[in-house]
Amino acid sequence: MTAEPAKPAKLSRQAIRIALWALPLAALGNIVFFLWALDGRPLSSIAERPWLLGLAAGLAFVPWITNVLRLAIWCRFLGVPLQLKQIVRIILGTVIANSVTPTATGGTVIKWGFLVNEGVSADKAGTLISTQIAEDTIVMLSLLAFALFFAFGFELPSTLRELDWVGARASTAQALLFLVAIVLIAGMVFSIARRGWFGARIGGLAQRAAARTGELCRNIVSDWKTVFRGGKSVVMASMALSAVQWGARYSVATAIIGFAGGAMLPLLYWALQWLTFTFSTVVPTPGGIGGSEAAFLLLYAPFVSPDTLGPVMVIWRLMLFYVPTGLAALIFLGMRGRVSARPV
């Protein structure tokens, strides 16, 4: 039992090493682009509302707090004895690992590994992850519908209301269809393997994996029944924190654009942030490097002046990705060592 959780720990240390040398290089590339875009002008030349830069910095770290609180709430409700230090380490470790893996990999699998590494059983870790996925899906769809309705109804300038957004919708649909295709192909290959088409040994492994997955799903369903019986207040509290989390994260761009003197269209910019991160999932680079920057420049070009678009993009990327990830790596290094954790 003690040797099995060592793999996630090794992964986290490797992720930190990669993050500490690779991310500064990527950030340096952004800074070079920033200086080129300024074309010799001082930063003060675009600083129309300096106080909004401080607001953007604060908003960028709100997800750390909400993620810690949400995990702590669910751990207490499900009887998972994780200490606050362990919860913080899980959240920071997930931030770091996400930065050195392609965006499409997904943070849920990574967080599951860190939960198991801290002594949480696979079943309970699956339940904790499934609650977050369900909450985030409901909150994101609700916020997106709200943002699009008010953005197109009130915020979007009249000259752009007839803008053809078919290309953006098509790109999003292609990304989702690609993901569905991968899942279907993987399921088909797994089903064939269970029938022994790839040999008895692989067939046996596939059958054991299927049995373990079935047991895991049954335990998750049982935990969800417990939630529905007595955890409605827990769900509401966690979903409220989720709304704060995504509202803050996707509002960083609005604050930075306002800092540079751009029009303040918070709901429209929030929806464009969702599109930006959706596009970045199809770019097979760590943390969506390159894809996120390109998507931002493309989607925000109609609303930000050409003179400030490049610098705004770099400030946004530094505040929302490079700086938080670098701080997470440094804090994680300072929290090394294992708090007494046991399987539950």
UniProtKB/TrEMBL annotation:
Cellular compartment(s): Cell membrane
Keywords, ordered alphabetically: Cell membrane, Membrane, Transmembrane, Transmembrane helix
Gene Ontology annotations for the cellular component aspect, listed alphabetically: plasma membrane
Coiled-coil features, chain-numbered ranges: none
Recorded superkingdom: Bacteria
Membrane topology value: Multi-pass membrane protein
Positions of transmembrane segments: 18-38, 50-69, 137-154, 174-193, 250-272, 314-333
Protein name per the record: Uncharacterized protein (TIRG00374 family)
Pfam family, one: LPG_synthase_TM
The keyword Nucleotidyltransferase belongs to this UniProt entry's keyword annotation: no
Keyword Cell division: no
Principal location listed in the UniProt entry: membrane
InterPro entries: L-PG_synthase/AglD
